[in-house]
């Protein structure tokens, strides 16, 4: 797209249906790379030996979670803002976002002196709301879901003369996100595949366009959270279609309908689309924290989840780039996610043991657990609801074990010593 063209105006006029979609080309991405140079961090893409060992692939991680605002969204935001006419830059811009696009607009807008207003749905993570305000944006909380927030943002834009910058379907946004694809090919020139999270589709469209233009034989694999699979729904329908979303750890992907421009750019460039579960996302966040010493949000963990899901056996031994594209996860959510990952891993478990309600009964139980090499995190007595046998007591045990096999060995050991166990409800 040429300099001086208000990309948001073009996008708003041309995203209603497939026939009116705006074509985005590789020269647009190349122009965006030159335009945003110096305002967006050239993030590293190191080889990960631990993740390679874990997956059986040669894994490289594109660390766009290291951007100033913690996500790749700065690329598109910078490219879009730099193309606005001077009078529009003075009036300002507005966007609807669950957080990352909002933070990117706020930060890049502050660098250029462009006022930014962001409308965030009520479910937006608190850390993203707080960060937007710290970056100088005017934050409006509105709507139970992204669609309601977006509609309200358009109302404000019309009333106050603000340019609406679509977070995933504006052509300038898509071209800006595509700069990550150029960097990836620069950093891993002989890559075999790149795995890209997809929500609204802007990142996927831009990266797929860049990678396929430079390395046509490289695979581009899209990954979605099961609960918000709008891209695969569009592939089945042949056009963007609205879906009902469910709560997900990958809140950045919670878009009910993929963008028209994004879909029409990406649909013929993507080799495959895989879906991952909430449990797989939680476990992947834990793995990245443990082995890469890096914190990512749920959206950015989906590429690793795809690798660990068993759906991509053809990539064994291949050079695969994972887009760790965002790190803005609420610390409270991170704590719960880590615990869920430990449970999924068999390293944190809960069961109920039935023991004799006599002196030394609990001591015997804890001694057996310790002898098995497990660590007791919590025990809770339950006499009132332990059944008709008044000589017995139920003990709810939360324990730390090495893995599922270790847990099974612990419960077998207790069984051998006359302690009945059953899964906690």
Total number of helices: 17
Structural domains: how many: 3
Mean pLDDT comes to 90
Structural class assignment: alpha/beta
Computed over alpha carbons, the radius of gyration is 25 Å
The assigned CATH architecture of the largest domain is: 3-Layer(aba) Sandwich
Describe the biggest sheet? 6 strands, mixed
Fraction of helical residues: 40-55%
Approximate shape: elongated
The order of strands across the largest sheet is: 1-2-10-7-8-9
CATH class of the largest domain: Alpha Beta
Beta-strand content: 15-25%
- N→C terminal distance: 58 Å
CATH topology of the largest domain: Rossmann fold
Give the strand tally: 14
Which regions have little confidence, pLDDT < 50, spanning 5+ residues? Answer: 1-18
Report what the structure shows.
With 425 residues, the chain is of the alpha/beta class. The protein folds into three domains: 25-71 and 170-342, Rossmann fold, CATH 3.40.50; 73-164, 3-Layer(aba) Sandwich (Rossmann fold); 347-423, Alpha-Beta Plaits, CATH 3.30.70.260. It has helices at residues 7-14, 26-36, 49-55, 73-82, 86-91, 100-112, 126-134, 146-160, 171-187, 202-214, 230-237, 260-266, 278-292, 298-308, 331-345, 361-371, 404-416, and strands at residues 47-48, 58-62, 93-96, 116-120, 138-141, 163-164, 193-197, 219-225, 272-276, 319-323, 348-356, 375-382, 392-400, 420-423. The chain has a six-stranded mixed sheet with strand order 1-2-10-7-8-9, sandwiched between helices. A four-stranded parallel sheet has the order 5-4-3-6, with helices on both faces. Helix 10 links the parallel strand 7 (193-197) and strand 8. Helix 10 (202-214) packs parallel to helix 12.
